[in-house]
Design brief:
Mean pLDDT: 94
Largest sheet: 9 strands, mixed
Number of strands: 15
CATH topology of the largest domain: Dihydrodipicolinate Reductase, domain 2
Low-confidence stretches: none
Order of helices and strands: EHEHEHEHEHEHEHEEEEEEEHHE
CATH class of the largest domain: Alpha Beta
CATH superfamily of the largest domain: Dihydrodipicolinate Reductase, domain 2
Strand order of the largest sheet: 14-13-12-11-7-10-9-8-15
Structural class: alpha/beta
Strand content: 25-35%
CATH architecture of the largest domain: 2-Layer Sandwich
Length: 336
C-alpha cells in the first residue's frame, strides 16, 4: 500500500483524494491546507484522514511514501524540494514550477535521492490523446503540418497568474507528448482587458526547426467554452474536441496535393483537394486522473519511467517562460 499525503485541498485536492482512495494500492492518510474550512471539508469527506495546516507534519510522517502537491505554482518549488529531501516521491500539479531553473533543480534532487517526480499533465492520460498518439506513431497522420489549439471560456479569472500560465499548460503538455520534435522559438501577444496588469487573452505561436508551427489561443473572456485541438497531417487531419460527449476525436481523410507544373509557370500550379471519409473512433471513457494514479502506482512499484515526469514538466515550463518573456517584449521571438 502506498500512503499518500496531499498538500493543498482547494479545487483539485478532493479529486486527488478521491482517486487515490479508490485505487486498491494507494490510500490518502494526511491532508494539509492553510484554510481551516477546507480541512473541515476534508474531514467530512474522509473522517479517517489526518489533517494539518503545517505541511512539515505531512513530510515528517514516516508512513507516507508519496506527496501530492496541489497549491499555487509559486509554492511548488519549495514544497516539492522539501518533500524530495524528506525521501518522498512527489506528484506536482501543473505547471511544475514558476521557472525552468527551479524545475531543473527538482529533477536533479529526484535523481540524487533515487525518487520519482510526477507532473499532473492529466490530459496525457485521456483515451483521446492516447488514441491520437497511436495514430501519429503508426504513420496514419503522415508528416505533421500544424498544431492548432483553442482553450477559451468565461472565467475563472486568476489573481496570481495570467491566462497563459493558467490555461496553456494543458495544451503545451499535449503538444509536447504528441510531437517528438523539440520547439526552437516562441512568440506571444496578449492583452489585459479586465485586470489591468494580468493578461486575460493571449495568442502563442511555437515554431520548430522543421517548419512545423503550433498556435495556441487562450482566453478568459469568451462567450462560449471551447476545448479543441486541430492537427494537420500530410495524410489525414484530426480534431480533438474535449467537450464533445461521444465524438471527442474525429479523423478526416482530407488533404491537399500540389500538382506538377513547369518551373517557369509555377504561379499556375494547381492544388488538388482530397476529400474522403470522416470517422470517429471509439475512445476509452475512463477518468484520466484514475488512469494517471494507476500509472503512478505502476511506476513506483515496478520502477518504471513516468509518462509525465520531470522532463515533461520542464518542457512545459520552458514554453511558459518563453511566452512570458515574449509578452513582456511585445511579441518578440524568444529562442528556447
Amino acid at each position: 500500500m502506498i500512503n499518500v499525503g496531499i498538500i493543498g485541498y482547494g479545487y483539485w485536492g478532493p479529486n486527488l483524494a478521491r482517486n487515490f482512495n479508490e485505487n486498491p494500492s494507494t490510500a490518502v492518510s494526511y491532508v494539509c491546507d492553510l484554510d481551516d474550512s477546507r480541512l473541515k471539508y476534508s474531514r467530512i469527506k474522509n473522517p479517517n484522514i489526518k489533517t494539518t495546516s503545517d505541511y512539515k507534519d505531512v513530510l515528517n510522517d514516516a508512513d507516507i511514501q508519496l506527496i501530492a502537491i496541489s497549491t499555487p505554482v509559486s509554492s511548488h518549488f519549495r514544497l516539492a524540494m522539501d518533500a524530495l529531501k524528506s525521501g518522498k516521491h512527489v506528484l506536482l500539479e501543473k505547471p511544475m514550477t514558476s521557472n525552468a531553473a527551479h524545475a531543473e533543480q527538482l529533477i536533479e534532487m529526484t535523481e540524487k535521492n533515487n525518487l520519482m517526480l510526477f507532473v499532473d499533465h492529466t490530459f496525457i492520460y485521456t483515451g483521446a490523446v492516447q488514441h491520437i498518439k497511436k495514430l501519429m506513431s503508426s504513420g496514419d497522420i503522415g508528416d505533421m503540418l500544424y498544431f492548432d489549439s483553442v482553450r477559451v471560456n468565461l472565467g475563472l479569472f486568476q489573481h496570481d497568474v495570467n491566462v497563459i500560465w493558467d490555461l496553456a499548460p494543458h495544451d503545451f503538455s499535449v503538444m509536447d507528448y504528441l510531437i517528438d520534435e523539440k520547439p526552437v522559438s516562441v512568440s506571444a501577444t496578449g492583452a489585459s482587458r479586465v485586470h489591468g496588469k494580468i493578461e486575460d487573452i493571449a495568442y502563442v505561436a511555437v515554431k520548430f526547426k522543421s517548419g512545423l508551427i503550433a498556435h495556441f489561443h487562450v482566453n478568459w473572456m469568451s462567450p462560449v467554452k471551447i476545448r479543441r485541438i486541430m492537427i494537420g497531417g500530410s495524410k489525414k487531419m484530426v480534431v480533438f474536441d474535449d467537450l464533445s460527449p461521444d465524438e471527442k476525436v474525429k479523423v478526416y481523410d482530407k488533404g491537399i496535393k500540389l500538382l506538377d507544373a513547369p518551373k517557369d509557370k509555377i504561379y499556375k500550379n494547381l492544388i488538388q483537394y482530397r476529400i474522403g471519409d470522416m470517422y470517429a473512433p471509439k475512445i476509452e471513457s475512463a477518468e484520466a486522473l484514475r488512469v494517471e494514479v494507476a500509472h503512478i502506482v505502476d511506476c513506483i512499484q515496478n520502477k518504471r519511467k513516468p509518462l509525465t515526469g520531470g522532463i515533461s514538466g520542464l518542457n512545459v515550463v520552458k514554453l511558459l517562460e518563453a511566452a512570458q518573456k515574449s509578452l513582456e517584449k511585445k511579441g518578440s521571438l524568444i529562442k528556447i
